[in-house]
Amino acid sequence: MEAAIVALSRELTKLRTGRASPGMLDHIIVETGGVKMPLNHLAVVSVLDSKTLSINPYDPNTLKELECAIVSSPLGLNPRVDGQRLIAAIPALTKEHIQAMCKVVAKTSEDVKQSIRRSRQKALDMMKKAGSSLPKDQMKRLEKEIDELTKKYVKSADDICKAKEKEINEG
């Protein structure tokens, strides 16, 4: 269940909101020297201000490849070269983009909740298999603990998604 929440957080950082976030470039793959690598293995991404990212490559010779990869990504960023680094301004979100991002957040949230419920079901099934060796009152107590844990993680997923939707809508 914890893994589902971690995956949700990691997935939502990839979404472009109105604010700059270093994690939004992590999924971009850069081809340099015939090898494809994630952008975060080739450069340090930092936030200059709420609307601007700075991309500092470990090797200045990869600057052009980094720029091409960012431009061709679905994020809609257009970085400019500033000496030995790239500066990417985060454009304002359109209404259509905001609605699309909110749909993605809702779908991701639902997928994570289903994953949490599957984990709950697996735990209950395992408990029932071992049930013959446990007293009935202990079975009920364990079932209640599993249900409370499930509710806690579902609420956590909801809170993360509501915060992300708020961030998207505030742009």
Automatic annotation (TrEMBL):
GO MF assignments: ribosomal large subunit binding
Compartments, record wording: Cytoplasm
One GO-annotated biological process of the protein: translation
Signal peptide as annotated in the record: none
Any one GO CC term of the record: mitochondrion
Entry annotated with the keyword Cytoplasm: yes
Domain Ribosome recycling factor, chain residue ranges per copy: 8-168
Cited InterPro entries: Ribosome_recyc_fac (IPR002661), Ribosome_recyc_fac_dom (IPR023584), RRF_sf (IPR036191)
Keywords in alphabetical order: Cytoplasm, Protein biosynthesis
Main location: cytoplasm
Keyword Protein biosynthesis: yes
Family: Belongs to the RRF family.
PANTHER family for this protein: MITOCHONDRIAL RIBOSOME RECYCLING FACTOR PSEUDO 1, RIBOSOME RECYCLING FACTOR
Function (record text): Responsible for the release of ribosomes from messenger RNA at the termination of chloroplastic protein biosynthesis.
Protein name (record): Ribosome-recycling factor, chloroplastic
